[in-house]
């Protein structure tokens, strides 16, 4: 799967969402998240991100490797106020903006970069 890491936080360009043929890039509050089971590894999203937040999982820079599991956690853990995101929603457009983040993203400070 492809993964969205720290550079997306508070930027949310959303150019990636337009490119994704399976609509598997979901919006939290401060960042977007790629669904690891819905992503077909087409790679179309990666070059359009202006802040280079997107990488294939094995190419995620070491300082951001926590984001690999964290993208999955967004879907596999029950988030406060967003129970409907658990599992495989099958399309970001139909789900809409979720409006909450994982703990890693919600508490992220860009000074850690
Ligand atoms: Fe974020 Fe880049 Fe997409 S900033 S919303 S990952 S285009
Ligand atoms: Fe979509 Fe990017 Fe995966 S365009 S299918 S999230 S590689």
UniProtKB/TrEMBL annotation:
<dbReference type="InterPro" id="IPR000813">
    <property type="entry name" value="7Fe_ferredoxin"/>
</dbReference>
<dbReference type="Pfam" id="PF00037">
    <property type="entry name" value="Fer4"/>
</dbReference>
<keyword id="KW-0249">Electron transport</keyword>
<comment type="function">
    <text>Ferredoxins are iron-sulfur proteins that transfer electrons in a wide variety of metabolic reactions.</text>
</comment>
<keyword id="KW-0677">Repeat</keyword>
<keyword id="KW-0479">Metal-binding</keyword>
<keyword id="KW-0004">4Fe-4S</keyword>
<dbReference type="InterPro" id="IPR050294">
    <property type="entry name" value="RnfB_subfamily"/>
</dbReference>
<dbReference type="InterPro" id="IPR017900">
    <property type="entry name" value="4Fe4S_Fe_S_CS"/>
</dbReference>
<dbReference type="InterPro" id="IPR017896">
    <property type="entry name" value="4Fe4S_Fe-S-bd"/>
</dbReference>
<keyword id="KW-0813">Transport</keyword>
<feature type="domain" description="4Fe-4S ferredoxin-type">
    <location>
        <begin position="30"/>
        <end position="59"/>
    </location>
</feature>
<keyword id="KW-0408">Iron</keyword>
<protein>
    <recommendedName>
        <fullName>Ferredoxin</fullName>
    </recommendedName>
</protein>
<keyword id="KW-0003">3Fe-4S</keyword>
<keyword id="KW-0411">Iron-sulfur</keyword>
<dbReference type="InterPro" id="IPR054830">
    <property type="entry name" value="FdxA_Actino"/>
</dbReference>
